[in-house]
Amino acid sequence: RLSAGRSGLADLPGLARDVWDELDFEEEARRQERFREEVIAAVPGVEVPRVCWEATRGRILTTSWAEGVRLADPPPLSRGRLVANGLVAAPA
């Protein structure tokens, strides 16, 4: 038997629900589209991959390819703009 105080799994049903939500790739695709719209509106010039709905089903999420610099590796001049919009963390 799991003890919430010792295992950190106080909400096992909630954890299971979150895992299943992450495995619902069609819902994940909808979230990605919302994210894409919000990022493009907040930071002009940033490219975020599109969901390819014709190839997204069940356990397959397909997106377009975006050339460029990853958000994880922004050039120094862009970092401030991305940090200000909450897209990357400020350096510690």
What features would you describe in this structure?
- The chain is mainly α.
- 47% of the residues lie in helices and 0% in strands.
- It has 4 helices and no strands.
- It is globular, with a radius of gyration of 18 Å.
- The model has no long low-confidence stretch (mean pLDDT 78).
Highlighted features:
92 residues; 4 helices; mainly alpha; single chain; 47% helix
Please give the alpha-carbon distance between the first and last residues. 40 Å
Q: What coarse outline follows from CA principal-axis ratios?
A: globular
Q: How many distinct helices?
A: 4
* Oligomeric state of shown chains: single chain
Give the helix proportion (percent range). Answer: 40-55%
> Spans of 5+ residues with little confidence (pLDDT < 50)?
none
Major sheet description: none
Count of β-strands: 0
Radius of gyration: 18 Å
Mean pLDDT: 78
- Strand fraction equals under 5%
Given helix and strand content, the structural type is mainly alpha
Helix-strand string: HHHH
Short description:
It is built from 4 helices and no strands. It has helices at about 5, 10-25, 25-40, 75-85.
Layout of secondary structure:
Elements lengths: L3 H4 L4 H12 L1 H18 L33 H9 L8
